Amino acid sequence: MEQLREVLKEVLKEELSPRLDRLENRMSSMETQMSSMQKQVSCLEEKVSSIEKQMSSMSEQLDRIERTQTEDVVAMLQMMDKKATARLDRHESQINLLNNRLLAVEADVQKILST
Question: CA–CA separation, 96 vs 88, rounded Å?
Fold first, then answer.
């Protein structure tokens, strides 16, 4: 019986030991691959985070540009309104002067005709 046990132990060692070694090697290989994949995922997460920060920065810049552009357009319209108002005032003044001169000439003509 004892010999049978010894023989069984030897057979199990011979058969199981290589299989266990192969399984351990496969597990080690899988752990290495898993570690490599974790590093890749970490790298991808960093890249995504960087892209999100860039997108946020670009969005802020776009908002600033849109605000500035609107302010620029309003300022240009106000400047155009001032210039147009100044021209209109100058033309009205010139028209009033011409009207006054015309009235004076009409009055002179009326005096000449009535004498």
Answer: 12
Among 82, 109, 90, CA closest to 98: 90
Alpha helices per DSSP H over the chain: 2-114
Instruction: Compute mean pLDDT per 10 residues along the chain, 115 residues long, and list them.
Output: 80 79 93 96 96 95 89 92 93 94 94 86
Cα–Cα separations (whole angstroms), residue 28 to 4, 5, 22, 23, 33: 35, 32, 10, 9, 9
Q: Taking the model in full, what pTM does it have?
A: 0.49
> What is the C-alpha to C-alpha distance for residues 22 and 30, in angstroms, rounded to an integer?
12
Q: Which residue has the tokens 């920065």?
A: 57
